[in-house]
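[Automated response] Your request has been received and processed.

Submitted sequence:
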Amino acid sequence: MSVETAEEPGWEVDPDDEWGVAVIATVGRQLRLRREAVGMRVPEFAAAVGYGEDLVYKIEGGKRIPRQEYLDKADEVLGAGGLVSASWEDVKKVRYPRKVRALAKMEAQAVEIGLYECNIIAGLLQTPEHARALIEAAQPPYSPDDVDRMVAARLARQSVFERDPAPSMHFVLEEAPLRRQVGGTMVWRQQLAHLLEVGRLRNVTLQVMPTNTDAHPGLDGRIELLKFPDGTAVGRSDGAFSGRPVTDPRQLHVIELRYGTIRAQALPSRESLAFIEQMLGET
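Generated structure:
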């Protein structure tokens, strides 16, 4: 693969992400100083690492977030003895968009996570193929690099399932998105199978809201509720308080009431899993 045709291994830096900008600028500066210290010009270095000169300039200028494989190759070429590769520990903390990092941080701290989705399958429950198909359907379309970054960010949030002790997690999904064959039949079947697998975890309750049910408080959008070890909580509902996150106990009570009503109206967990199994058996 020539350097002219190599894909750029990184993502654009969000100029509004001050912490991310500072980290990537520092890493880029260190890379430039090390390259200059060994007497390599950009064209020579680019050829050695196997990527384009434009990418090298962008990374060294703090305009692009390098991926781990780029840093590892640069470490090898520069003879840095692992010091350049080690910068990945800082880079990986800012590689995802700021909003995603903030949400992932809260989910990682929560002892209880409650989520209702009305139009899609919740991101925490999506397979990689399903997530990619959803993101690629956006208009105007995202660049391939942006798609990769968004898929990776969405999947990274799913590390919450690996926590020990595990948080208590509750999901309510509408029937309609479950029936939509996003990505084709095979991807759809894999997604339903994944829901069954996750729904059988001891700390997870998965419920389905049938399409033929009565009106409920979630018809105006998504609801998310996170509770933390110190007794505090944060909630957000598309249809309440202008959709902004709230922590005030009186406002949280409203969101808890909405979410509780939805859970009471949805199918119980066992019936929900049987419902999804029936969908799989219909094809």
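Summary generated for your ticket: Residues 18-37 form the longest helix (20 residues). The chain has two domains: 10-91, 98-281.
If you did not submit this request, please reply to this message.
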